[in-house]
Amino acid sequence: MPCHPARARELLNAGKAAVYRRFPFTMTPPYPSPCLKAGVSRADSMTPILPTISVPLRTEADGTIYIGQTKIMLELVISAFRLGDSPEHICENYSVLSLSDVYVIYAYYLQNRESVDLYMKTQEQSEEQFMQQIDERYPLPDTLRAKIRAFQNANSHS
Description:
Elements (H helix, E strand, L loop, with lengths): L4 H9 L4 E4 L4 E3 L5 H4 L4 H5 L10 E3 L5 E3 L6 H9 L4 H7 L5 H13 L1 H25 L4 H15 L2
Antiparallel strand pairs: 1-2, 3-4
Helix pairs in contact: 4-6, 5-6
């Protein structure tokens, strides 16, 4: 804790403190710290140990990446991020997600943008192939197909 230089001189002269470091000037109690008994230096005992944060992602056998233990796909959250949704708004839409997980996902995306974008592109291609297979198995009348495409195009441009 900082103190006035006159107070520091008083503590040093009275033997109630010892100089630990000259720059930046640091004093310590003259008696041994419990940390020193355990073999830990004073500098190490003053350094906080911060927990590491793991990215809550899991990959299924089909290659789809989900967030945590939920069934919410990574591409849903990243798409919302690209549209400008806040983490709070995403948590409102997907109540099973925690706010901290969404922030970690955002940070992960910003640090690994190229690989996540490549994954997203691969997922989009897989989705298009799947939709083509459905169209081949269950053909729609041309008029209905035209209406669906027009609706999709109108919503994708807005």
